[in-house]
UniProtKB/TrEMBL annotation:
InterPro entries (alphabetical): ABC_BtuC-like (IPR037294), ABC_transptr_permease_BtuC (IPR000522)
Matching PANTHER family: FERRIC ENTEROBACTIN TRANSPORT SYSTEM PERMEASE PROTEIN (PTHR30472), TRANSPORT SYSTEM PERMEASE PROTEIN (PTHR30472:SF41)
Entry similarity comment: Belongs to the binding-protein-dependent transport system permease family. FecCD subfamily.
Organism this protein belongs to: Youxingia wuxianensis
Gene Ontology CC entries for this record: plasma membrane
UniProt-recorded name of the protein: Iron ABC transporter permease
Any single GO BP term: siderophore-iron import into cell
Keyword Transmembrane helix: yes
Gene3D superfamilies: ABC transporter involved in vitamin B12 uptake, BtuC
GO molecular function: transmembrane transporter activity
Lineage: Bacteria, Bacillati, Bacillota, Clostridia, Eubacteriales
Length: 341
């Protein structure tokens, strides 16, 4: 028993160290690499405030650093959102993109952006998050209604996908009748990207994501009890109804923040929690939640680096890259589930 506990601790420590090394490496690569070459020596000087020309300073401080921080925060948020949804539905395929929650957020953000661009051409960060949250809650409401009617996990996923298609279709109709300026902004945003993020946006997403993530971590104990079944959680003193509502709200806030700033990003919320649980060989929330956030940041940093540099100066949408990497992981989950079943 003692040997097994030591093995678990060593495994966790090893995974944490590997993830931290990958995180640091990708963080540096995202700052160093780009369509414009900036020498490493100049980057070091700029970061430490010791010089560098004005153009290079603008590239590092106004473009690459905010974008890198957005990938870290929003990647972590997506991963945690997926973990909460998988816990809520007790389904490894549940995620904000697959269940149509991201598409619902995309719809309400599109409506808000079209309305605001036609009037003032200014869009508030917090207002975007609120709009995305309302759309996420609307989609989640439909998914929960379907969950009550349909008991099959596969049918629930199909229902979520259909909700996503409906929301995307309505969004396309809205874009069709929008003015030219709104169409350009909506098109760039709807493809999914961390580009164009300002330090003000980073501050807003940091407040929302870090606060929500801290709340999720503080709920580790009731989440762990809930994973063992509703009856067990109830016996441990968990108010099931309030707890389920809390899980939905926290997941919706995290996915809404991502959609508001970066557009819909696919498969991160499914793939990362699954990989983290596989590496740790446990689903204990106290251990999984911090690594899950870190894993989401690593996944999105890596995908953003690929999207920016693979065909530079052309840039791929972040959702296309996450789909190419994440979809095979989801397929492997389904195949394993089929074999076990």
């Amino acid at each position: 028993m003692k040997d097994e506990l030591i093995k678990k601790r060593l495994r966790y420590a090893a995974v944490l160290v590997i993830f931290l090394i990958l995180f640091t490496l990708l963080l540096l690569l995202n700052i160093i690499l780009g369509s414009v070459d900036v020498r490493i020596s100049d980057i070091v000087k700029i970061l430490f405030g010791q010089g560098g020309n004005t153009t290079d300073q603008g590239i590092i401080w106004k473009v690459r650093l905010p974008r890198t921080m957005a990938a870290v925060l929003l990647g972590g948020a997506l991963s945690l959102s997926g973990f909460l949804l998988q816990t809520f539905f007790n389904n490894p395929i549940a995620g904000p993109y697959v269940l149509g929650i991201s598409s619902g957020a995309k719809l309400t953000v599109a409506i808000y952006m079209v309305m605001m661009f036609s009037r003032t051409h200014v869009v508030g960060s917090y207002a975007l998050i609120i709009a995305a949250f309302l759309g996420a809650m609307l989609s989640m409401g439909f998914v929960l209604l379907m969950a009550r009617t349909v008991r099959s996990a596969s049918m629930l996923i199909v229902s979520g996908v259909m909700i996503g298609y409906i929301c995307s279709a309505i969004t396309d109709f809205i874009v069709t009748f929008a003015d030219d300026a709104s169409i350009v902004n909506l098109h760039n945003w709807s493809r999914g990207s961390f580009s164009g993020v300002s330090w003000q946006d980073v501050q807003v997403m940091a407040v929302v994501v870090l606060f929500t993530s801290a709340v999720v971590f503080l709920l580790s104990k009731p989440i762990g009890a809930y994973q063992l079944g509703e009856s067990y959680a109830q016996n441990m003193g968990v108010n099931i109804k309030a707890f389920r509502i809390t899980l939905v709200l926290l997941s919706s806030i995290l996915s809404a923040c991502v959609t508001a700033f970066a557009g819909p990003i696919s498969f991160v919320g499914i793939a990362v929690p699954h990989l983290v649980k596989s590496f740790l060989k446990t689903s204990k929330p106290l251990l999984v939640i911090p690594i899950c956030f870190l894993g989401g940041a690593i996944f999105c940093l890596g995908c953003d680096l690929i999207s920016r540099t693979l065909f530079s100066p052309l840039e791929l949408s972040i959702s296309s890259v996450t789909a190419v990497i994440g979809a095979p992981i989801v397929i492997s989950i389904l195949l394993r589930k089929k074999v076990r079943g």
